[in-house]
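Students often ask why we bother encoding 3D structure as a string. The short answer is that it lets us treat folding as translation between two languages. Here is a chain of 114 residues written in the first language.
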Amino acid sequence: MVFCPKCTSEKCVKDGIINKRQGYRCKSCNFRDTVQHRGKSPDVKRQAFELYLEELGFRSIGRFLKCSHVEVYNWIKAFGEEVKQIRFNSVLEALRGFRPARKAYAIKGTGIYD
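And here it is in the second language, the structure alphabet:
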């Protein structure tokens, strides 16, 4: 079953061959797509990330999931950037409610005492 990437309709028909690949046209929105979308599912990518957290190497993960180790590396790199952003946001949230304990500070030469 072919789905339209633009409107997610199932009303797609064959529309010629382009660069030795089957082209498709959506009857609903008239969008033309040259290839069916390929790639691994998000579940496989998540599983690769979990195996990486269990300290397996990229090549081992690739053999286990039957894909390229470079592909695994790119997934983990993308996950890492997302995790870094999430971690940064959570640290900011934690610091918003943080108030340091009040201590007496004397800054030499300024005459400022707290």
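Translate back mentally: The longest strand covers residues 12-18. Keep this in mind for the problem set.
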